[in-house]
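A quick word before the example. In earlier lectures we treated sequence and structure as two separate objects. From today on, think of them as two lines of the same record. Here is Battenin written that way.
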Amino acid sequence: YWRNVVGFWYLLAHKCINFLFLINSLIPYSLPNTSAIPLVPLNENVTHSGRYDCNPFSTAVILLADILPTLAIKLSAPLYIHLLPYSFRVMMCVMSAGASFIIVSFSTSIGMSILGVVFASISSGLGEITFLCLTAYFFHSDVVSGWSSGTGGAGIFGALSYSGLTQVGLSPRHTLQVMLVIPLIMAISYFCALVHPASLPRWTMTVNRASASADRRPLIECNQPPTGGVSSPPLPSQKIFSPPQGLLKYMIPLLLVYFAEYFINQGLLELFYFRNTSLKHSEQYRWYQTLYQLGVFVSRSSVKCLQIRKIWLLALLQGINMVFLLFGVCFLFLPSIYLLFAIILYEGLLGGAAYVNAFNNITQEHSQSPEQHLEFAMGVASISDTLGIALSGAIAIPVHDHFCSL
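And the structure line, produced from the sequence above:
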């Protein structure tokens, strides 16, 4: 029990994937002019003629590069994912995550940096759908709360470690190279920490039972496929791209929550710059992301204490946050950075609560269903947050450009 819960929290819980996603969001605001990665950073010494202290390279561009491959993987996964055993999927996640760290750290052009982000997105998309579906094969739902808490912990770990290492003088390139240990830990967690259930789909050797001698046949025949492959049958093809009606009440609010919070994070927060503080603009942005990740971590770890059934209420509150901060950018009426800090922390609390409660509710409602049905439901539901992020990134770019042109 504890090996599985801890495995899903500390090791499997997207630590490297969330870390990559966070780093990719921070790249434009973290790299000095001498960096090998030629993304345009903020320059606090330049006097801007417009109303806003703008970075011409919006973080929403990186957001789209990071989320579109993930969305493609999640939408197409029902066609082939059942053919791949979990061990193979995990190794693909590990290798693509490691490739992302290496490519971004040695990048010499924007195109090469975006390629590294794409590899991170492949790891993120395949990893999330793999690990969420994997929870269906464990007999206790605590692995879902462990997974969600771990993803939140990954975010705050990534924010603090990256900011801390760069603050003490380590270059962004060397910081990313040091973090190559994270994909390795991820592999160790799956193959060593977790206790794999017997029902977990695996590749099996082809067995010709007709030619097997009687003394070598098992006393109890198991229902395994006569030809090699993964021992998990695919769901009927008519269910692909048609989520059960019971999932929509969670998928639609989750989509709206993620649309609102990523529109805030990648479209609005970089436009807030308080000149009456000792923090430079790039430092303020890092603290925005760090506080957001702190809120996500706290709320994703709270499902054992507080369970929420009405996910639409969280979507409504997050939408109010988005509208309020949009007006805040338009009219610049927020008097203090500390007020914005509190709003961002609250935003993270809402987003994390929506994620963990949505998947926890799906697990509880399908607890009596066959493992393949719960596996399918978790995979389909994971599309909603990715779609919300993709939509927010597409809208955040023109919004950012509009404000920067004022």
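Notice the following. The two ends are 57 Å apart (CA to CA). We will return to this example when we discuss secondary structure assignment.
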